[in-house]
Amino acid sequence: MEKNATNVVLVSEIKTLIEQSKQQLAVVVNATMSELYWRIGKRINQELIHLESNEKYGKQIVATLWRQLESEYGSSFSEKNLRRMMQFAKVFPDEKIVVSMIRNLSWSHIKELLQLDKTNFRVAEYLTLLPPQEVL
Fold first, then answer.
1. pTM
2. Dihedral (Cα; 135, 96, 51, 44), 10-degree rounding
C-alpha cells in the first residue's frame, strides 16, 4: 500500500475512534447529569417534607435555591428545572430504577415522561412493568 493510502486509512480509523469516544462520553455525561438532577430533587423534597407545616417557607427555599444556583451554574438550575428535578425524584423514588433508566434515557426524554405523568399516566408504574428493551 502507498504511504498516502496508509495515511488516509490511519487518519480515518483514528477519526472513527475519536467520534466513538465522544459519543460514549456524551452518554456518560448525560447519565451523570440526570442522576445529579434526581439527587437534587430528592434532597429538596426531603427538606420540604420537614417544612410541610409552613408552605410559604418551603416556596422561599426553592426560590432562594434557584437564584443562587442559577447565578453560579447557569439556566440548568432555574426554578422550572428545580421543580422538574423535584418531580423526577417524586415520580421515581427508587434509586435503582433511576440508575437503570438513565442508562437508556436522556434528560430530555425524562422531561417528556414527567410531562406525561402530569396527565395521570403513571409513568413510573408503566416503565417498571416493561422489559428493558421496550423502554427505548
1. 0.78
2. -70
Task: Encode burial over 95-129: b for 16+ CB neighbours within 10 A, e otherwise.
Answer: eeebeebbeebebebbeebbeebeeeeebbeebee
How far is the C-alpha of 88 from the C-alpha of 91, rounded, in Å? 5
If we measure between CA atoms, which residue out of 37, 36, 14, 17 comes closest to residue 25?
17
Residue 53's φ and ψ, nearest 5 degrees, are -70, -15
List, as one string, the DSSP characters of 72-119: HH-GGGSHHHHHHHHHHHHH---HHHHHHHHTT--HHHHHHHHHHHTT
d(CA 6, CA 14): 12
Exposure class string for 48-84: b at 16+ Cβ within 10 A, else e: beeeeeeeeebeeebeebbeebbeeeeeebeeebbeb
Q: What grid cell was written down for 74?
A: 447557569
Could you give the percent of the chain with pLDDT greater than 70? 82
In this model, does residue 127 exceed pLDDT 70?
A: no
- Report domain extents, the chain: 3-134
